[in-house]
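Quick log. Single chain, no ligands specified.
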Amino acid sequence: MILCCGEALIDMLPRETGAGEDAFTPYPGGAVFNTAIALGRLGVRTGFFCPMSDDMFGQRLRAALDGAGVAHALSPAVDRPCTLAFVTLTNGQAQYAFYDTGTALREMALAELPVLDDSVQALFFGGISLVSDPCGTGFATLCAHAGDRVVMMDPNIRPGFIRDESGYRARLDAMLARADIVKVSDEDLHWLMGTGEIADLAEGLRTRGPRVVIVTEGASGARAFHAGGVAHAAANRVEVVDTVGAGDTFNAGFLAALDDAGLLTRDAVATLDAEALQTALALGAKAAAVTVARAGANPPTRAEL
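-> predicted structure:
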């Protein structure tokens, strides 16, 4: 099982009423939650961990996980409200305003962390769940206790959400040192590593711990930097409706391809060749293309691919 560990929240997506008024409609979401849903729809045995509210929004989150076949028994129901993320779109690009104080996610306690058994072969981390305390400390602690499991990480950096940059960078540094696979956008990579050529920055990031560093570059596709060189997959040309959930779906496609090939072990990831990486990048790109071609974070099933 791949256990996705990170935020579950409600995306308030912009819509228009029948009277022509601007409105927001609630949809289950969160970067790591979206990746779990996408993995489940791709037929991969998937689990999800994050404390979820026992309110009506928490019930919607659990129903969505159930609908995708994602196990969530490790996620405690708590008497704290659900995080809300209001989304605005500019030329299809999403911007977010988070309402997170005192929530099921933000106030996660170390006592709420799951005990991992042998059914968990890989862990996925990322998103805003790594930014703030106490939840950021909790997810970093879980990562540090991953044992011999594969760890993939997508920081999915939201600069406007960061209040303690030095603390956040220190947390990411520790998690990067443990991660086997790291996926970043080109914008994330520059935030982490500064100015420079993408290839040089990606190789610099790889020296900090990860065996594979994936950089997504929008219409230019995605590259995976590894010990054997660089693998590349082109982006699929589609008419973009919005980009909500695109990167999250890419992560799921990449992990699903490794799972299909029986390569989700630390030894296998350390020695991935260009062919295996290209196949995984291609499935990630293909799945993401479906998501961006329709509204909201609505990843495809395996049959749709």
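The domain at 2-292 is CATH 3.40.1190.20 (UDP-N-acetylmuramoyl-L-alanine:D-glutamate ligase).
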